[in-house]
Input
Amino acid sequence: MLAFMTTTTSVVGTTTLQFPSADQFINDAAHIAFLNQNQSTWIAGKNPFFDGMTYEQTRHLFGTDLLGFAGLESEIVGDEMYSHIKDSDLPASFDSRTQWAGLIAPIRDQQQCGSCWAFSAAEVLTDRNNIKSKQAMPVLSAEDLVSCDKTNMGCNGGRLPAAWKYLQNTGLVSDTCFPYTAGSGTAPTCATTCADGAAFTKTKSASSYAISGATNMQKEIMTNGPIQVAFKVYKSFMSYKSGVYKKKPYELLPEGGHAVKIVGWGTESGADYWLVANSWNTNWGDEGFFKISRGDDQCGMETMGPPYAGTVA
Output
């Protein structure tokens, strides 16, 4: 079905705002040009991941439950866990891909399944397993979580704490053992044998915990590796190409929740940022990565997952 641009406009002072409707194409050139007007920290552009798609057609991608810390107080690690690292010792920039070269999982593609929660969790455990073993181990299966974790909702979304409980209690097989085939939006049944004929062996997390505060998030990353986070997605985010993302001030209602993997941080043109790996293929954003404002809980990035991780068994 052909979708037409039905943008609503509003004038505030001397600025004309555009509010794209649900049936507008994400890669609409006029709207991208509008997003780049008066832009200060980031650049919008067309992303092949969203070719031919309207905003309405993407809503199934944003099913991650945004929980915050309420009710999870017993799972939050305290400042004492990071007391050996002084705030003043934090580097101005950090990139897990440089710190642990060759050990960080590549950008992947969840396709048209709301499995971001599974991909980011599986990638964090993969990275931490590699870091601990000091070698590139097999990438762990996101499909294992999508198909087998019955505390979550497969292609319809999930919750970070529940995903980490699955990693801790059950663990994941490798991606070659249980390859990802849920990209069309329908998950296969839970596997009990490996597609590649290998032994059905699980890799587990020894613990799982929430991380409170941007400084503790930094200390956790530089000590143990990337962490999983979730945040509120607004329409403008889908058009991100480069720079340090901040939602537009007029964007009040998010499209939903999305889960990703923070691999580092830095500062660009005076703007502090988190360096984040997405699961929308390398043809989205900056080769699959994006930078988002750090220290101001932009889009709930520092509170709404809440940020989660675990040690490797």
Summary: Residues 116-133 form the longest helix (18 residues). The chain has one domain: 8-309.
